Amino acid sequence: MKKSVLVMIGLILGTGTAHAGVCEDTFIKKGSPISGLRFIATTSVANLSPESAIGQLRGIVAGKGYDILADEAADGSMLIEQPMTGKVRAFPIEITAIDENGVGTVRLEAKLRAAMLVKEADAKTELCGILAPLKGGKAGLALAAAGKSAQTAAAAPVRMSALAFSHQLSKDTERNSAAIPMRYKGKKFTIDGTVDYIIKDGAFYRVAYKVPEPWEEAIRLPNTAPFKTNISCLMGKGTAAYTLQLKPGKSLKLTGTFHEFDEFRHTVWLNDCRPER
Questions:
Q1: DSSP-assigned letter for residue 79
Q2: Order of strands, sheet of 103-111, starting from the edge strand that comes earlier in the sequence
Q3: 3-class secondary structure, 10
């Protein structure tokens, strides 16, 4: 993995850290590229409650493009991910915050997937940079109040083939299907492939992509999920003329927003889909 994997969404270079050097001095690298690398960053700040720490961190990571999967500020817990780009898989960063005798300790653990590579120095710069702006006391509470409702800005559509998108969703389902709605919520995708069928669905038309069954694929990569995930697009307003000219087997490239996922039917729906001209 190139240097940009962990720093692609920017470094947060705060200058007001209460304990300069603590994070860098205690930074830990574990695991291996085969099993999956892990990087752990920790810092301590006086008069920093768990709720204040998580509120501040939400504002920090949302502003830098991380996806926020879970936020339990009162319990000092948050789960974020560096978002997927189409070429780079998402990976989680678990955040925990505790208060011991008036000192708040915050821990970040990045868990890279097997075969993902990044230099230790780059991981240290990124993770310790996230922790650097944390403040205690009234200043921290003010930052937490501003950050607790922060939302990650919508990114550009992720471009993938229908088969690659199906493989990715199937693997995510295999790992933990409960995380999929939070991981994909609000994300836009540009998917290219061929038409399987077109039907009327209420007031809209629905276009399904042709995705081969696992046994129909000419080449199956190792660790691929043993099932496929179907991809279906609810077409947006003003696309009827385009949609009614489609037919099975015709090539298409549509951009839509994640709408719904059914783990039992192995199907994902995108909505407000529109053709890429």
A1: E
A2: 28-30, 38-46, 103-111, 91-100, 77-82, 67-72
A3: coil
Per-residue DSSP letter, 20: T
Token match 């817990």: residue? 77
Burial of 128 (0-12, 13-18, 19+ CB in 10 A): buried
Kindly list the structural domains of the chain, giving each domain's residue range(s) and its CATH number in brackets, ordered by start: 4-147 (3.30.310.80), 158-275 (2.40.50.140)
pLDDT score of 86: 62
Residue labelled with tokens 């504002």: 59
Strand, coil or helix: 200: strand
Decide: 22 and 46 in contact? Cβ < 8 Å. Answer: no
Say how far residue 50 (Cα) sits from the centre of its chain: 23
**Average model confidence (pLDDT) across the chain:** 88
Which uninterrupted H or E stretch holds 54? helix 50-63
